[in-house]
């Protein structure tokens, strides 16, 4: 499911994330906003003393400001060893700030579901965290709850419409719009609703996704104004009539009320890092079924407030970064100036074939084999995306000097620069070399971002472009049903949309066990989903989980609160 | 479903609620808290500039303060004509403040579901509203979302436990714990979850209630501290083992994480009325399946901050007020000093047999007949609850002087005082007579509140006491299954709990069509539900709706937001 971020990285000297976070002294958010960003208190909507939304009116008032440079943090293909993309984003922003630059970090909001499952929190780790950590990982400013309410109101209105005579002629068997909750709840994946007799409506198959997999989440993250949000919500296709005509949220007159529920959620959230660097944490769509980046509102607002904005895309550079470019940048006009590819010695040894249990053992050979994964990502960034790339070597205590030296050399042989980073243990000081490298890349490699494919290719050709150019695949095949659906979507007028590839994050291929850099593989699309409101067409390859389950012993068993309200057990 | 509050009252001169609310100039909540209540900004957790939570630490710091007087606002049996309990509560608090008293109002939070259904908002009406009205009616401070998340996390953990081997031996057929959403969604009343094969768990019948019907809501409203909240959540019984032993949230190790989710929600919310009287709006359980009052935390905190606190109980004095006394006061030690019974000429004519369409016609005869309803409520308050009662005659423009004079006389003949109130149109000035009457009642009738039954009666005897003493019933009968369940609950050690009668609000009887004051009726209990965490046993009589549906044309169709983010269509 969601990214494996970084708390996996542990040393004997660094206390648990929550202890560091709870011990931190935070700057009152109104002071931080005024002193560092020039935002007056009236332009903030505080949620407590250390988090705030930046009002939509203030966001609008920034429209004519010039924008800073955007640095995209991505990674090699994720492994069970953990890479540390969020910590690196935070550490890099802190390091830029410590070098005297006006810097911000713009990240996704964590989903509460995984917090109670396996993953724990997602606000960075060690000495590279965003705070208040428990708030950010839990209810935060209510954005996810608002998304769930808007999503589920549309479901309720849809079923209500069918119940009350179905004037639009919706075929209940064709409804694609699912309900959502922000929990890991496998029992809700496949359900039958409307049981119990006439008064309860029409029985039909339905299911719940986790909030981050919802189209409303993707829409909120791509919308540029209340007007655009409402327009996109109106465009959502919920299903089809018996005449196979799409039925939209606008047809159901649901989009106005949905926008009302989401009005406050559209405003970006401002918090800070442990080192008081301003942080925008806003939106958090999946990086498979959706585009996997924080909101356009937050990124754009940060760029108008700072000279350097560090942002993160989901999973590896084949997934999150591709979508960042082909969906978020395509729709918004945003353009990154440099890309940081996060790699670890451990993860590359895993890509070189080592078992997880063996990763503590030194192996330059495995590392050299695993370099194939990093190499392809780096070449993609440079040659396909057209952007300067820098490698962040997120160093773990178990990494040997020989391994680190080998990795630095291997990267250099590819014509890129790699920088050791120890922000997890050392905060900003641990990422200053990386920060200087990034600044240097921005100055000296004025790349111009390239989309992977133009709008006017067919949807199948777009998938083919991503698969061959980014994944190194031989080609794309389609289930007969998926091919028919593609044809229908194009006939409905959605052929101009970009594609959103839902692929395993663990491999360049659709087989999660193929580590490194597989070649000559085929990408098989088994299902196609239209996200007309978000503005993309999802190509589902393999099994994509849109509702995680809880493990046998969920993290929730150890999450508790003492009598004074202090939360314990959150990692 | 939820109470019919007051916006039904319209005149040609009073603008729509939302226009009045949006035109209001609100005092910044930090200023209001400091100036009126002596609360420093650090003790507040602001949510924007006009709403805040009062921090739990500050709430605790008030523990030794003396408490003001509590005024409970209740009503005759609700009718389609609308009575105006919330507006009267707001108007009375404003009037007390305008007379120089230090007054607050403590109300329930509206549920978002009905806002998009028929009901519209629930923040008062006319010139007697709490503001910011749109915020209060929508996501507010996230309390309901947190309740839903905590409730549904328990469901997820339960199904996960069964899926992963069911070490506790839970019998899935006996699970009574349902999922919730804060929407009107009839399609979710009866569902089957866990479909789709082995990976998705065990299929079983389930259902969703609306958040206000959940035990977590009741628990949050009765909890007095984080510790008490966690203890109550741990006590929740979710179902039974195959050996018929109760399984609790504590057995599932879910209560700690649930408490974590609810930590912020436990702190009471501070807002203001249109006339800048401080208002606590916190919690909102149903008044049938639950106890129908705002939170103990809010009521108690308000009493420590003000000399007079006006609070409201759900539905009529037979339902909400009875539960206010027998559940909320019994558990918390709170004691009201006076009771205001809200009545209208229109509603009493309805109780006297008039059709809704005819209510604009003068009829002292119908009014005199309908007085039977008010009479029984007044006698109950005085003779059963042991409290001084005052009638608020919430005057509508269509009421004739003859009708008003007749009602005032009828009330006087019963030995009570009634006061015309026009706060809907006139604000505080319209309720000053009522306020003086309430102050007088408190001074001159130092009643001592009586519980309707002692703890040590059997559960059946407790139901009998309410039915005969309050409802005027001849007695109580039980379905065989309900009787068996009662015996089991007592055997499990819950016989000492108070009962929570789930009865139609429209009649003293269980037949909603029996207006006025029916006698010799029998209350038939068809189902019994244990709420071990909330600390009561629900006696279900008749059909009690715990998940409303949307009407053919839901209010959501007319609720919209303009490009500047202004919400329209909310009433």
From TrEMBL, chains A, B:
<comment type="similarity">
    <text>Belongs to the formate--tetrahydrofolate ligase family.</text>
</comment>
<keyword id="KW-0547">Nucleotide-binding</keyword>
<dbReference type="InterPro" id="IPR000559">
    <property type="entry name" value="Formate_THF_ligase"/>
</dbReference>
<protein>
    <recommendedName>
        <fullName>Formate--tetrahydrofolate ligase</fullName>
        <ecNumber>6.3.4.3</ecNumber>
    </recommendedName>
</protein>
<feature type="binding site">
    <location>
        <begin position="79"/>
        <end position="86"/>
    </location>
    <ligand>
        <name>ATP</name>
    </ligand>
</feature>
<dbReference type="InterPro" id="IPR027417">
    <property type="entry name" value="P-loop_NTPase"/>
</dbReference>
<keyword id="KW-0554">One-carbon metabolism</keyword>
<dbReference type="Pfam" id="PF01268">
    <property type="entry name" value="FTHFS"/>
</dbReference>
<comment type="pathway">
    <text>One-carbon metabolism; tetrahydrofolate interconversion.</text>
</comment>
<dbReference type="InterPro" id="IPR020628">
    <property type="entry name" value="Formate_THF_ligase_CS"/>
</dbReference>
<keyword id="KW-0436">Ligase</keyword>
<dbReference type="GO" id="GO:0004329">
    <property type="term" value="F:formate-tetrahydrofolate ligase activity"/>
</dbReference>
<keyword id="KW-0067">ATP-binding</keyword>
């Amino acid at each position: 499911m969601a990214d494996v971020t970084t708390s996996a990285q542990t040393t004997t000297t660094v206390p648990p994330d929550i202890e560091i976070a709870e011990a931190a002294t935070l700057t009152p958010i109104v002071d931080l906003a005024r002193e560092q960003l020039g935002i007056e208190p009236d332009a903030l909507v505080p949620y407590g003393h250390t988090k705030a939304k930046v009002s939509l009116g203030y966001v609008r008032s920034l429209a004519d400001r010039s924008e800073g440079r955007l640095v995209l943090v991505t990674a090699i293909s994720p492994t069970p060893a953990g890479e540390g993309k969020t910590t690196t984003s935070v550490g890099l922003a802190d390091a830029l700030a410590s070098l005297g630059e006006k810097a911000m970090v713009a990240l996704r909001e964590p989903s509460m579901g995984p917090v109670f499952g396996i993953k724990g929190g997602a606000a960075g780790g060690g000495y590279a965290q965003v705070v208040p950590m428990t708030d950010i990982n839990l209810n935060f400013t209510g954005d996810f709850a608002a998304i769930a309410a808007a999503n589920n109101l549309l479901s309720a209105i849809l079923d209500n419409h069918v119940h009350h005579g179905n004037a639009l002629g919706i075929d209940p068997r064709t409804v694609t719009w699912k309900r959502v909750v922000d929990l890991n709840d496998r029992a809700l994946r496949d359900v039958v609703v409307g049981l119990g007799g006439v008064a309860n409506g029409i029985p039909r198959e339905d299911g719940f996704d986790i909030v981050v997999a919802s189209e409303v989440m993707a829409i909120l993250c791509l919308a540029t104004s209340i007007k655009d949000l409402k327009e996109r919500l109106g465009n959502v296709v919920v299903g089809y009539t018996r005449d196979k005509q799409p039925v939209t949220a606008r047809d159901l007159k649901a989009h106005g009320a949905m926008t009302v529920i989401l009005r406050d959620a559209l405003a970006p959230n401002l918090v800070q890092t442990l080192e008081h660097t301003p942080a925008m944490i806003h939106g958090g769509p999946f990086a498979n079924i959706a585009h996997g980046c924080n909101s356009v509102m937050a990124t754009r607002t940060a760029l108008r407030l700072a000279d350097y904005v560090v942002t993160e895309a989901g999973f590896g550079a084949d997934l999150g970064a591709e979508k960042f470019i082909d969906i978020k940048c395509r729709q918004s006009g945003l353009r990154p100036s440099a890309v940081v590819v996060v790699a670890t010695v451990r993860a590359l040894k895993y890509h070189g074939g080592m078992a997880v249990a063996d990763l503590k053992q030194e192996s330059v050979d495995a590392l050299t084999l695993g370099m194939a994964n990093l190499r392809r990502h780096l070449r993609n960034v440079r040659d396909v995306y057209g952007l300067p790339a820098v490698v962040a070597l997120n160093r773990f205590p178990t990494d040997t000097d020989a391994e680190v030296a080998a990795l630095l050399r291997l990267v250099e042989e590819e014509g890129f620069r790699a920088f050791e980073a120890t922000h997890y243990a050392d905060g900003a000081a641990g990422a200053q070399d990386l920060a200087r490298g990034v600044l240097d890349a921005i100055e000296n490699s004025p790349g111009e971002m390239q989309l992977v494919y133009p709008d006017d290719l067919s949807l199948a050709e777009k998938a083919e472009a991503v698969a061959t150019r980014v994944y190194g695949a031989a080609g794309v095949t389609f289930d007969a049903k998926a091919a028919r659906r593609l044809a229908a979507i194009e006939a409905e007028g959605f052929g101009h949309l970009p594609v959103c590839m839902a692929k395993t994050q663990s491999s360049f291929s659709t087989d999660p066990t193929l580590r490194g850099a597989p070649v000559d593989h085929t990408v098989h699309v088994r299902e196609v989903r239209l996200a007309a409101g978000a503005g993309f067409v999802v190509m589902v390859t393999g099994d994509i989980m849109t509702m995680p389950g809880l493990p046998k012993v969920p993290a929730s068993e150890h999450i508790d609160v003492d009598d004074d309200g202090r939360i314990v057990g959150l990692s």
